[in-house]
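Two entries, shown back to back:
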Amino acid sequence: MRWLRRTTRHAKPGRVAALTAGLVGVLALPAAASASVWHLDEGSGTTAVDSGGRNNGKLKNVQVAQRPAFSGTAYRFNGVNSIVTMPASTTLNYSPTSAQFTVTVHVAFTVVPSAAVGDYDLIRKGFSGTAGGYYKLEIFPSSDHKQGRALCQLRGAKGTAKLTGGPNLATGTMHSIQCVVQPTSVGLVVDGATVQTKAVTIGAITNSSRFTMGAKSTGGDWFNGLLDEVSVLG
């Protein structure tokens, strides 16, 4: 099975080397039927610009122009009330007619989610009980809350998948996390290495929920750290 490198076709000029350097060993993505790419490079204001031109987001209590970043600058989330929210959009749903659907984030953090916090939402569209399914990427803590690892979870019209694993990401440096959905499988890719795959048919995800970064749309699971170069391609 071929796991695929994050596309650079929507990247800003001069970013190709930087974007591909963090995903060594994963092959090139096919052209995306639809794409939203948030570089998170804004130096001011309260809008997260989607370079795909479809899904701009609204910042709340987020610090812009932060480092370290994967490329350019990053957003800092305070672990208390920071969130970026996009309006509900069908372009961020998953259709199994696409050869592949890939959600990518880049994160840097040192504080592992506590027992009180539970876990960190990095991106989310919908909830476990949402009509039409849902998907999310999280940082999930070890039982002793000393390490934080990637988690990808989805529910579609035909099946569910929950994948977690890879190295401890609470290092303060940028790491890439990808959830790669194909018609009959799901893969979790961390720093360019496939850490878990599952043979499963998810089926369509067709919810009307908002897409969020850094927390649930209703609040909670507040991320404490930096996010950069977020994309939904499929």
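entry 2 starts here
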Amino acid sequence: MTSFRLVRHIEARLQVVFDAVTTATGIAQWWGPDAGPVLLAEADRRVGGRYRVRFRTLRGSEHESSGEFLEIDPPKRVVMSCHWKGGVVDPGESRIEFRLRATPEGTDLSFTHSPIYDDATSRSDEQGWVWSLRKLEAYLAKGEAA
């Protein structure tokens, strides 16, 4: 099993970033590996609450992720279970964690995904999250979430 961690600096206030990663409205703007649309975004932002996201890639494949909010420390941290379906090989559930820290220029974001069951899946998932976080940065840079 493996995991990965991605770190980004986002030029948006801490609460704005937290809302973008934990609400259906926010998630709908950035989840997915390319410019394809998010088709469905649901989020019940509370410990034990569920989320579900379905998106279509530009190549036309649809993917869905769902899980539960496991830990929430607003606006600094959220841990969610993550289960993929819809054509993605997924032998079980993993966890994703967002850690956020306010800075004078915005917010530092640390994203961790674990456990991932093999290296090939880890590489694919990491690339998908790299693109998703780029979309998050672009969305928040426009100031639309403020």
